[in-house]
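#onboarding

Welcome to the new folks! Below is a worked example of what a typical request in this channel looks like: someone posts a single protein sequence, and someone else replies with the predicted structure as tokens. Don't worry about understanding the tokens yet, we'll cover that in week two.

Example request:
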Amino acid sequence: MVILLMLANWGIETRKWQLLVNHVQAFSFGRALKSVLAGCSVTMLTPNRIGEYGGRILYVKEEHRIKAISLTLVGSLSQLLVTMVMGCIGLLYLRYLSHNNSSLGKVLPEFWGDVLIYLSIGLTVLLLLFYLRLGWLVRTLEKLPSFQKVVNHIRVLDEFDDRSLLQILFLSFIRYMVFIAQYVLLLQVMQIDIALVLCFWLLSIFYLVMAVAPTIGFVDLPIRVSASWAIFKAFTTNELGVGTASLGIWLINIVLPAIVGSLLILSVKIVKEK
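Example response:
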């Protein structure tokens, strides 16, 4: 089931990228999938997946590549926004539970927990306003002469109306739910006995932490394992199971697609050399 959900995960991301890149170049689903997987490979070498565009633009025509970078950022921002919103709700849920269970204070101390909640909510609101006003940002920069070169490359963002942005955001939300379902299944396999609702919101906090923590793809496994255990230890004593579930998600969702993407990048290079 987790493997099948991985296919759904990258299928949703491919559709999202196809919708985005079609604003500068017609992309088939198959070409979009190759582009997404190539991006997965590059992210293994960069902090917090910021190099994802480096692999994706290999399948975009050279004259459109700089514009495609801004489209990649839109897709990443939508996914981050969903993660932030759900993570904030998870923090509020855990804060609510901590009032009835003093042991949860070790997971989310009251003072620092409140600081984290307020900062997360504030940042989420700013991200949401920024995301829904991309066109306004482009039109504002157009009025500044020193930004004309930049505007020429990001003007494509002005083509996105609210409906298009919400469609991308909805696909990001569905993909997020796939992440959660995968993790819940692996935790069950590892015999982590936590109520489904509680497990869901704990995972939302975990993904929030991973979204803001500085990581590099090929060495972020220790951070994932440590973060997951710090969040789950108040509800289970099965540290090995929690760590193994984190390892499974890392291998299935990150390493395996990156290996496939590396082969695709190699094939592109060979074709260009010929």
